[in-house]
Amino acid sequence: MFIYPFVWMLSASLAPESELATLTVIPSEITFENYQVLLDKIPIGRALLNSVIVASSVTLGVLVFGSMIGYALSRLEFRGRDTIFYIILFTMTLPFHITLIPNYILMVKFGWVDTYAALIIPYMINAFAIIMFRQYFKSIPQDLIDAAKIDGCGELRIIFQILWPNSIPALVTIGIITFMASWNEVLWPLIVIRDEQLMTMPQLVTLFAVGGRAESQLGVKLASAVLLALPILVAYMFFQKYFIQSMASSGLKE
Amino acid sequence: MNIRHKTILPWLLVSPYIIHLLVFVAFPILFSLVLTFNKWNIISPMEYIGLSNYSRILHDRQFWKAVGNTLIFLSIHIPLQIIVAISLAEILNQKIKLRPFFRGAFFLPVIVSGVVVSILWQQLLGFDTGIFNRMLTSIGLGRIGWLIDPNWAMPSIAIMATWKNVGLYIVLFLVGLQTVPKAYYEAADIEGATKWQKFWHITLPMINPTIFMVVILSTIGGFSLFIEPYVMTGGGPLNSTLSAVLYIYKQAFFYYHMGYSATLGIFFAMIILFVIIIQKKFIEK
Amino acid sequence: MCIKLILLSLFLSGICVFASSCSKNQKNDGELLFWSSNNLPEIEFAQDMIETWNASNSPHINFQPVPEGQSSEEMILAAVVAKTTPDIYANMRQGDVEFYAESHVLIPLDTLDGFLEFMYARCDSSVMDEIRSADGHTYQVPWKINPIIVLYNQDYYDELGVVDYPRTYSAYLSLAEKFKKDMDGDGYVDRWFGNTESNVLWYQRFFNFIPLYYAASGGSPLIENNKAAFNNEAAVKVFTFLQTLYKNQYFPIERLAARRDPFLYGDIATKWTGPWDVPFIQKFKPDLNFNAHPMPVPDDYIGVSHTYADPKSIVIFKYSSNPQKAWDFLQQFLSIENDFKFFSLSKQFPRRKDLLTDSIFVNYLKRNPQLAPFAKQAKYTHGISDTPYMKEILALISQEYEACVVYGKKEPRQAIQDAAQAVDLLYLNLSQ
Prior knowledge:
The structure holds 3 protein chains of 3 kinds. Chain B is an all-alpha fold. Chain B has a single domain (53-284), classed as Orthogonal Bundle (MetI-like fold), CATH 1.10.3720.10.
C-alpha cells in the first residue's frame, strides 16, 4: 500500500507510452526513452547541483547559527533572554502566507532575485532548530563547559569544540530535517528564481511536468518525478535509521 | 572589561536571529499590514483605499468557501491520520517480524517531495484509467470520481495527505507507546481486562500528549494546503478543493490584488491562531 | 574571543556575498535575453534564430523558454517587479499586453527606428489598428495566430460514414451518440467523441467556450464598453451544447493531465485545438490519419463559422539595455524566410498579410492538407477584448461554466445571466 505507488511510478516511467493506460506492475518491455527525452530537454544535472548547493548551505547555516543562538539561550544569562525565547515560539505559529509577498519585495530590493542568496539566506535561521539546540544543550553537564572555561576556551570554541562533539544526535537530527525541508521546497524557488541555470530540482520538475514542455507525455512526466525522488530515496536507504529517529524526535521536542 | 564583555557577548551570539527576525519576519508583517489598506497591483504605485479590503472579505463568498474547504479537509484528515497512525503503530508494536521493513515503508512517502506525490496520485486517482478505479471495477464495484466528483475531491486529497504523512505519526506513536510501562498492562491482565479495555483505559491516556502534538502538527500542515490542489485540481471541481492558501495565491498572482491578498493572509492567520487555541483548550481538558 | 566571533561572522557574510554574486553570470553587460514559449518547435526555432544572429552580430542574445508553471503570468509579473525581465518575450497573449502597457513596463515600439514601416509591410492595417493601445502607442508585434478548430480522426469519421463534416450542433451530437462506446464492457464509456479541458482555470476557456461563442455569434465581442456583452442567445446555445456533451457522456469530465493524450491513442475522435497540435501528432503518432474542420455552430446559424485566434505577440520590456538592437534582431526574426521556417517547423500561423497569397506559403499549404482548414479559417478569427481584467472575467465565466456545463447544476440561461451580472459587478467595483 505504501510502496506500490512508487513501484508503479518507476515501472510506468520505464514503459512505452502506449502501455500506460493498462499498466499494473510490469511493462512488457523496458525503455529508457523517457529519461533520454527528459535529459535532452531540461538541465537536470545542473538542477541537482543547485539543489545540493542550496540544501547544504542552508543546513550548514542552520546548524551554525542555531547552535550559537541555542547556546546563548540555554547557557548564558542576560536580560531579555526569555523574551527572545517567547518571540521565537510565537513566530513558529505564524503562517508563511503573510510574509510571502513582502519577502519577495525584499529579495527584489536586495537584488537577490535569480541568485542563490534568495534561496539560502532567508532560510539560514530556523526557529525550530534554535529551540531544539536549546533543549539539547540544556541536557549537557555544566561541568564540561566549566572545565573548558578554566582551560581558557572562548564561547565559540565551547560551542564548536566542546558542545558539537557531544551533540551528534541533535546535529544529525536537525541536519536531516533541514536538508530535507530545503530540498523539497517548491513555492519559494518558483517565485524568486527564473534563470534555468539556477533552478532547484523540485522547481525544474514542477515547471516541466506542469508546464508545457513534457508535451503531455505521461511517461516523461513520471520519469521526471522519479528523478526528483531518487536522491532523497538513496539518502534514505543509507540513513534510514537516522531519518526516522530525527523525524520522531523533531516532533517530540516541540 | 570582563563585565561588559559578558553583557555584549550573548547579544552578539543572538544577533543573527534578531537581524533575521527584523528583516524576514517583522518587516514583512508590517508591510502586509500596510498593504491591507491599499490597492496595489505590484507594478503601479499603491493606492490608499482605507478599509475596503476588510469589508470586501465579509462578502467574499469564495474566500469563506475556501476557509470552509480547509476546515473540511482538516476534519477528515486529522481523525483519519490519528486512527490509521495509532492502529498501525499498535500493530508494529506487537509483531516484531519485519518491523523495520514496514516502518521504513510507511515512512517512504514522508520524505518524498509533495510534487512527486501530487503527480503520482493524479494518475492513481484518475477516473477512467486510474489504478484505484480499475481495481474497483475488477472486483465488481462502481468507480469513484475521486478528483472529479465535488463530494469526493477534498476527501481524496485528504486521503492522499494522510498517506503522505502518516509514516511520521506512526513513528511518533511508536515512541509514545513504548513509554507506557509494561506493569500497567500486566496489572490489567490480572484483572481480566479485554484488549480493547486495555487500549481505551491505559494506552490512550498515556499517549495523550502525542495525540495533542499530532493534532497541532496536522492542523498547521493542513492549513497550508496548497501544492496538492494547485497541481491536481486547480481548486475545482465546483471550488470543492479551493484551499484558503490557494485562493490567496490566486488573488495575488493571477489577479494581482496584492493588497486584498495580504488582507486575506492576515485574516486567515487569525483564524489559524483561533483554531489552535481552541484545540489546545479542548485536548488539554 | 571577540575577534574570532567577528572572523566567523565575516566568513558567513562572505558566503552570503558569494552566494548572491556568483550567479548572475547569465546576462553579461549589454547582452540580451530572449524568452520563448515552452512549445518545442518554437524553442527549436528561437534557438536557431539566435545562433544565426550571434554568429555575426553583437550584442549576443541568450535564450531560455519562459519558466512557467500553470501559466506564464506569475513568472512575468514577478520578473517585472524585480526588473529581471527578458529583453524580448515572444509569447504574450495579445489581451495581456494592455495590462503591462498601462503599467509602463513595455517599450512603445513605434518609437523605434523602422518599426512602423516594417510592420505595415508585414501586416494588414486593420491588424495594426487592432493592436494599438489606448494611448496611441504600439507595444507589441502581432507575431502569430492559431485558429482553434476541430481536429478529427479520419479513420473514425470514415467508420461513422461521415460525408460532410458535422457543421451544426445536432450533426455533431448525433455523431457523438453513434461514436461513444464502452469498449471493455465494464459499464463505463471509454471511447468518447471528444475531449476538452474541464479545469476551472480561466485560460482553459480559450479552447472551448470562446471559440464556440465566436462561432455561434459570428465573432461578437465578449466585453463592450466595460460591460458584459455575452448575455445573449448565442452564449446560451453554446452552454446548452456543451452541457449536452457532458450530460450524455460524449466528453469525459476527467482532466487531461490525469491521462495520456487521448487523441493520439484513439480514445477520442475529435479535439478542439490549434495547428500547433499538427507537428505534435506527426511526431508521436506519424501514422494517425487526421484532418480538421470548423467549430460547430447552432442549427439555425447561417454563415461562416468564426473562431478564437489565440493571437500571441512579441514585446520588448523597458528594462532592456538596448531596445533598438532587440528590434533589429526581431526584424531578422520576422523576415519572410524566417516566418516560413517558423511556420513549417511549428505549423503556427505567422500573422502576415501575404500568408494566403505568397507562393512560398501557398505551396506549403498545398503539400500539407491537414493545415488547409486552419488556413481557410484564418480570415474568420478574433482575438479577445483588450482589458486588463480579462483573467478575472474569464475566471468568473469559468465558475459558471463549471457549474452549468460540466456538472449540470444550473440552467444555461441562468448561468450566462449570472456570469454577465458578475462581470458587470466587477467593472462596477473597479470603477469606484
